[in-house]
Amino acid sequence: MTNNSESAIEFRNVAYCLPGSSGILHDLNLTIRPGETLVLLGRSGSGKTTSLKLINNLISPTDGEVMVEGRSTRRWDVIRLRRRIGYVIQDIGLFPHFTVERNITLIPKLENWPRDRIRARLQELLALVGLDPQLAGRYPRELSGGQRQRVGVARALAADPPILLMDEPFGALDPITRADLQTEFAALQKRLRKTVVFVTHDVREALVLSDRIALMESGQVLTLSTPQEFLHSTDPLISAYIKSVNTDLGDGSTRGQP
Fold first, then answer.
1. CA 115 → CA 80, 124, 134, 155, 210, distances in Å?
2. pLDDT at 256
3. Is residue 129 assigned to a domain?
4. Residue 49's pLDDT is what?
């Protein structure tokens, strides 16, 4: 549970720069509500992935504070912080020498869950992400790209963390598989109501999956809106993004709430 009912994650005047650089993030202020899916949308180099890495303390802000459940990431024990956060990335990051079962159950085992509870959680997760239980004994190289990505999502959910970070998780998949997984993830999130921060440069994906869209450019959030507000915005930059969508997106195609 969060200590602040209004925010699960908060960026307070956050800046991040590498030595000798002009900075990747500049005075970033953003509040992410419990149970919402916030999409960070923007071009390569806009600061999306850097923002994500600040949340689970893979990197620390140069200035400002990132708050997770009411506590600065500087004050969290880094292991406890990361075990409260599921992390899904584009190249999945599965251990190639681990079976599907071992990949999914890694964190529960590190948390010393009882064996029966781990077995039950494995079966629950396989069903949740739509994987045949017979795949549990296979290795990642024996799976399709879509199956590997489902394993990645299952692993991120294994210890039931309240927060999920997703960095272009479906970006490497073919368009049909990607659309299928987007639909399945939206349905899954509707059931689980995790706090999700989802990075993408794909406008359609942002519109389909988000409760709110934070449009990033040059290390800052330029606009923050619901999908419907985004679609009907007269902002020139947003209009340029909308024009990049080739698929017809009617009002019923988005998750966002007015």
1. 21, 14, 19, 17, 36
2. 46
3. yes
4. 95
In a domain, 107, yes or no: yes
Angle between helices 115-128 and 145-157 (to 10 degrees): 130
Cα–Cα distance for residue pair 85/99, rounded to 1 Å: 22
Tell whether 150 is covered by a domain: yes
Domain count, the chain: 1
pLDDT at 65: 98
Whether residue 177 lies inside any domain: the answer is no
Mean pLDDT by 10 residues, the chain (258 residues): 68 92 90 97 93 96 97 96 92 88 96 96 96 96 93 95 95 88 94 96 93 95 95 89 60 44
Hey, how many other C-beta atoms are within 10 angstroms of the C-beta on 173?
19
CB 52 within 8 A of CB 82: no
Q: Which pTM value belongs to this model?
A: 0.89
SS3 letters for the chain? Answer: CCCECCECEEEEEEEECCCCCCCCEEEEEEEECCCCEEEEEECCCCCHHHHHHHHCCCCCCCEEEEEECCEECCCCCHHHHHHCEEEEECCCCCCCCCCHHHHHHHHHHHCCCCHHHHHHHHHHHHHHCCCCHHHHHCCHHHCCHHHHHHHHHHHHHCCCCCEEEEECCCCCCCHHHHHHHHHHHHHHHHHHCCEEEEEECCHHHHHHHCCEEEEEECCEEEEEECHHHHHCCCCHHHHHHHHCCCCCCCHHHCCCCC
The confidence score (pLDDT) of residue 246 equals 43
Per-residue confidence (pLDDT) for residue 93, from 0 to 100: 81
